[in-house]
From TrEMBL, chains A, B:
GO terms for molecular function: DNA binding. Transmembrane segments: none annotated. Belongs to the ROK (NagC/XylR) family. It comes from the Bacteria. InterPro entries: ATPase_NBD (IPR043129), ROK (IPR000600), Tscrpt_reg_IclR_N (IPR005471), WH-like_DNA-bd_sf (IPR036388), WH_DNA-bd_sf (IPR036390). Signal peptide: none annotated. This is Transcriptional regulator. Pfam families: HTH_IclR, ROK. It comes from Cellulomonas chitinilytica. Residues 22-64 form the HTH iclR-type domain. The lineage of its organism: Bacteria, Bacillati, Actinomycetota, Actinomycetes, Micrococcales.
Length: 408, 408
DNA sequence: CGAGATTTGTTGTATGGATGAACTTATGCG
DNA sequence: CGCATAAGTTCATCCATACAACAAATCTCG
């Protein structure tokens, strides 16, 4: 954690990052693609400096120059800068309780390839499942330009790295999964097993992270337009995942285990998961555990007392747990993800009421409860974005240095 | 939150901070005062660069050159560098439920002046109390060299700034106290009232912060020797304060309100404060509310069942609340402060047991429960250190530029 | 006791990145 | 067609750090 000394190169690295971020973020906020001059004005850097930096970024495919659009004003038309498509991409994989998948996302946030397999992975064999995932990863990457048999006209896609989302506690430095209660996995050498079945992951050791953390990252990305977001993300799945987002950044804690909300004690020794987890709700509503959340929604819509009571109990427990979190973290915004997003009609109002009643700072900064915008596969996108975030944080590592001479 | 562009000056600022920190931190870790060469080796900067930076810092009184000690090795003897005494200092004030005080601390962490007044400030009049504090502040600063009537041989102490610790929710940008339940204060224009009674605070608008946050900062400072500390600080007072320390830094949240632990719901709707607050414990033990914590300790030592039960209930509630916090934040270390420090004999074991049982990551990173090392007045020290921390973060703002020419 | 070894701190010179002003390019407008 | 306007580039300058050579102050060993 010792801060490193700043040499001159650090300056360039820093400013390169600022320029790159400025270009990539423009699209997110709905702003038109900025020109070099716009970037200079926005960042406070000199035009000459920005020009030099942009040229480097363009040469390495980290920034794309668009066609000059017919301008309305006088003056030389600007060259719009934007996130490039298909130059640099990252891979986000996921193993969850009921599905398995891979996504490859590029700097423009376009999904280049996607593979998803549904199944029931509770109590599954880690080696077998990870072998399947490894094959899926290699298959997906094989479909990328420049990686499969075909090398078309365009440049090949560079792969910046890979990540893997898991529904449990992860040791990201060792590349192992410590504990995933709902998968029934414990102390699994995930990185090692994946390296056996996937040449891609052998070359790009995946960044392991918690599924909720990565889903929250995708969610934060979707909310960039509203400014840097701070919120608590609660993801109802078979278990309950949680994540903390501060100023658009995931707060993972020392080991990346922060956000563990499901095991919060809410009342008389019961944990949140035992009251508001999917299995618990279904059982309380008298429904089959395997059925999923749709029957519960139907029953509630039909006015079944057991279903309504189950949802009310879950909402109360969620409200208590989240009030504690909001008081502790001074983050007044809650986002409901996973199956909670689908149950939001029944959960939102009572949770908000609980927050309003219990949050000490409520009178000055009213709490909010929102529904996640990311879809089911948010964690894969979030994982890819986490890797791309490393690129933005350290752009010079991804620059391709060209020869000074170079006559065509 | 937009990151500013790095000009060349930023480089210098950054490196100046690194060098300053290296010198100031050396004492904390028990290392001998480093020489310029030591700093260069430790930071990775060139000797020439360090020399130039150190010279600036010395000229402005941010670093002190000690007498060369007779060395044991060959070579030119080194000039030891250390934190200077009495050159630059910060003021930490505090209003709490049962006392009121000021401390002035310099860069060497020496307490230059201290004033404390004991009293009962529950339900007090804010204007009167703050007038009293303002007078106390001016009195304390008047006793500093160069600020009172006397201007002795040495240079005057420069005051870097002031801070004020309050047991409640604070709006630090507006300089107001929003809510302090145990003082009975609400929406008080603290900065405005203090400016009336204190010329010092008129010149140095105090940084308002939560008492527990600042006490935790002092605690983190005392633990620097063990490396950057991450812990949850629980301070038992009339109410219950809490603070989160991450890598030696206070996590205050968006508005500085994070750490609010006392209003956590622990069981059947009761909050932690209602079970483990000082008043609640005393009542449960059948003791007088005004008595303070000593009678409770005596009763427990005598084996009184009511006292033991009160402590046990408090410990259980604390254990549950802290388990939730540890699971949420991935910070496995708890420090008991305030009156909890004195009750630690009775609280520590059961709290640790609760953590061990409930913390999901416990098997891999065992939780710990520690007793605070800071004394009663930790918040004042912490407040002063917070201000000094700003100096270290931006040293160039505190440099005194000398004329190039200067013949004596 | 003196020459060499050793380590600290300082004094140039070189390097690399940002800056600002002048210049070129490309457009709209009258 | 000339002028205004704005984008992007070129170039001399500045500034902080690096590197190397040097001066200073002490120990060590013959």
């Amino acid at each position: 954690m010792r801060s490193t000394p700043a040499r001159q190169g650090s300056l360039r690295e820093h400013n390169l990052g600022i320029v790159l971020r400025e270009v990539l973020e423009a699209a997110a906020t709905g702003a038109p693609p900025p020109s070099r001059a716009d970037v200079a004005a926005a960042t406070g850097l000199a035009r000459a400096t920005v020009s030099a930096l942009v040229d480097r970024l363009v040469a390495s495919g980290l920034v794309a120059e668009l066609e000059p659009v017919p301008t309305l004003r006088a003056g030389r038309p600007a060259v719009p800068l934007a996130a490039p498509s298909g130059t640099l991409a990252a891979l986000g994989a996921e193993v969850n309780v009921d599905y398995l998948g891979v996504r490859v996302v590029d700097l423009s946030r376009a999904v280049l390839v996607e593979r998803v397999v549904h199944g029931d992975y509770r109590g599954s064999d880690p080696a077998a499942v990870l072998a399947e995932l490894g094959a899926l990863v290699d298959d997906a990457v094989g479909a990328l330009p420049g990686h499969g048999a075909d090398v078309p006209d365009g440049r090949p896609v560079r792969l910046a790295g890979a990540s893997l989302a898991l529904p449990g506690l992860v040791d990201s430095t060792a590349g192992t999964l410590l504990l995933a209660p709902n998968l029934g996995w414990r102390e699994v050498d995930v990185a090692g097993l994946l390296a056996r079945s996937s040449s891609v992951l052998r070359e790009h050791p995946p960044l392991l992270a918690n599924e909720a953390d990565l889903a929250a990252r995708a969610e934060a990305d979707l909310r960039r337009a509203d400014g840097p977001a701070s919120f608590v993300y609660v993801s109802g799945e078979i278990g309950i995942g949680g994540a903390i987002v501060l100023d658009g950044q995931i707060f993972g804690g020392r080991h990346g285990w922060a956000g563990e909300l499901g095991h919060t004690v809410v009342a008389d020794g019961r944990t949140l998961e035992q009251v508001a987890g999917q299995d618990a709700m279904l059982r309380a509503a008298g429904l089959d555990r395997q059925a999923g959340v749709e029957p519960l929604l139907r029953a509630a819509r039909a006015g079944e007392p057991a279903a309504l009571a189950a949802l009310a109990d879950a909402a109360t427990a969620l409200g208590v747990a989240l009030s504690n979190v909001v008081n502790l973290l001074d983050v007044g915004h809650v986002v409901l993800g996973g199956t909670y997003a689908r149950l939001a009609v029944h959960l939102r109002a009572p949770v908000l009421a609980a927050l309003s009643a219990r949050v000490l700072a409520g009178p000055w900064v009213p709490p909010t409860v929102d529904v996640a915008r990311g879809g089911n596969l948010a964690a894969m996108t979030g994982g890819a974005l986490a890797v791309l975030g490393q690129v933005v944080a350290e752009p010079s590592a991804w620059l391709v240095e060209h020869e000074v001479a170079g006559a065509g």
